[in-house]
């Protein structure tokens, strides 16, 4: 194994990683639940960017239902983000999970 070729490959991998990080930061996905009554938007860093609630689901007599809808929408958004990142980074990772 040639250490110089390894260093050259490492520099290329670092450049690919930097590019991937820039692309990931631009990704946004929206998950929903309750027939789109609750929508949650995440960015590529899995940070919560937005929550939209249909006024019909905001009932102070049933807070537990709203909490469940928010959790379900967040879970849906997480799944979508994971799939999006897997499809974008899959070729770069060469089959790693």
What does this structure look like?
The chain is α+β, with helices and mostly antiparallel strands and 97 residues long. It is 57% helix and 19% strand. The chain contains two helices and three strands. It has a three-stranded antiparallel sheet with strand order 1-2-3. The two termini are 26 Å apart. The mean pLDDT is 86.
In which order are the strands of the major sheet placed?
Answer: 1-2-3
* Helical segment count: 2
Number of β-strand runs:
3
Strand content: 15-25%
Q: What low-confidence regions span 5 or more consecutive residues with pLDDT below 50?
A: none
Molecular shape: rod-shaped
- Mean pLDDT rating: 86
Gap from first CA to last CA: 26 Å
Give the topology string: H per helix, E per strand.
Answer: HEEEH
Estimated radius of gyration: 19 Å
Helix proportion of residues, in percent?
55-70%
> Would you tell me the structural class of the helices and strands?
alpha+beta
The profile of the biggest β sheet is: 3 strands, antiparallel
Core attributes:
3-stranded antiparallel beta sheet; alpha+beta; 97 residues; 2 helices
Q: What's the structural blueprint in terms of helices and strands?
A:
Blueprint: H1 3-26, E1 28-33, E2 38-43, E3 48-53, H2 63-93
Antiparallel strand pairs: 1-2, 2-3
In short:
By secondary structure, the protein is α+β, with helices and mostly antiparallel strands.
């Amino acid at each position: 194994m040639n250490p110089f070729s390894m260093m050259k490959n490492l520099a290329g991998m670092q450049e690919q990683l930097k590019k991937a990080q820039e692309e990931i930061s631009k990704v946004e996905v929206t998950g929903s639940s309750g027939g789109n009554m609750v929508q949650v938007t995440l960015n590529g860093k899995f940070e919560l960017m937005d929550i939209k609630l249909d006024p019909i689901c905001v009932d102070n007599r049933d807070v537990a239902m709203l909490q469940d809808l928010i959790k379900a929408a967040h879970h849906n958004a997480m799944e979508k983000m994971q799939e999006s990142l897997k499809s974008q980074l899959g070729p770069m990772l060469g089959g790693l999970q």
